[in-house]
Amino acid sequence: WVEPLAEGAVILRRRARQQGAALLASIAQIAAQHPFQHLITPGGYRMSVAMTNCGDLGWSSGRRGYHYSDVDSFNGRRWPAMPQGFLLLAQQAAQEAGFTDFQPDACLINRYEPGARLSLHQDKDEKDLRQPIVSVSLGLPAQFQFGGFARGDGVQRLLLEHGDVVVWGGPSRLRFHGILPLKPGEHPLAGPYRYNLTFRRAR
Ligand code: MD3
Ligand code: FE
Fold first, then answer.
1. ipTM for the assembly
2. I need a labelling partner for 66 at 20 to 30 A (CA). Which of 84, 120, 127, 176 fits?
3. Does the beta carbon of 118 lie inside 6 Å of ligand 1?
4. Is 110 near ligand 1, meaning CB less than 6 Å away?
């Protein structure tokens, strides 16, 4: 069921739970060709979160800054197509949240190991910020933080668990957000990791 979080943002708790194993199998297939990598930020720091992508475009970072690219800089090859199950889930979730016609062309796949975190940031590398972002959490639970529209605004905490789907649109699309350091654990399907899929319309 659909639970509002903030204006334009809704959580569909456990929405993807029944597809968890299939989603994780697709992630493993993608990572076999396009390995998870710890990107280096423009400031020169190694990210604790490891990333790969699927879809027409993939998100990446480098000395030139953050950008979307149609090839993986690891091997120079195009990103694998978005699996049909990914696309359907993202479009159905967007629709349930009130966003019709969501056509994601990028899916960033984040992998968190114990201690990995994502500091507060905004997602604004996409061309049309009226398009929502759909996120799917898998594996170990994590504390998500979402704040306001300035870095210094107060934050709310939310536990994101295996199968949770969140749709971020409207004004919430530009909220600051992040993930606190992952607590160690063992998930029956994902082992010691948390995975997060974010579906985006990048161009
Ligand atoms: C709120 N990922 O990849 S997903 C990211 O769990 C990212 O890996 C986190 O932030 C993760 O950029 C959080 C939830 C999420 C994704 C995008 C958002 C929340 C958002 C965009 C705008 C506002
Ligand atoms: Fe983000």
1. 0.97
2. 84
3. yes
4. yes
Residues in a beta bridge with 195: 111, 138
CATH number for the domain spanning 86: value is 2.60.120.590
Helix/strand/coil for 121:
strand
The bound ligand whose nearest atom lies closest to the alpha carbon of 132 is: 1
Nearest CA to ligand 1 atom 15: 135
Instruction: Tally the domains of the chain.
Output: 1
For residues 131 and 189, the answer to whether their CB atoms sit within 8 Å is no
Host domain of residue 131: 2-200
Q: What is the residue-level pLDDT of the chain in tens, covering all 203 positions?
A: 788 889 999 999 999 999 999 999 999 999 999 999 999 999 999 999 999 999 999 999 877 899 999 999 999 999 999 999 999 999 999 999 999 999 999 999 999 999 999 999 999 999 999 999 999 999 999 999 999 999 999 999 999 999 999 999 999 999 999 999 999 999 999 999 999 999 999 99
What is the signed CA dihedral for 71, 76, 81, 82, rounded to 10 degrees?
Answer: -60
- Determine if ligand 1 sits within 6 Å of the CB of residue 138: no
Q: How far apart are CA 133 and CA 104, in angstroms?
A: 9
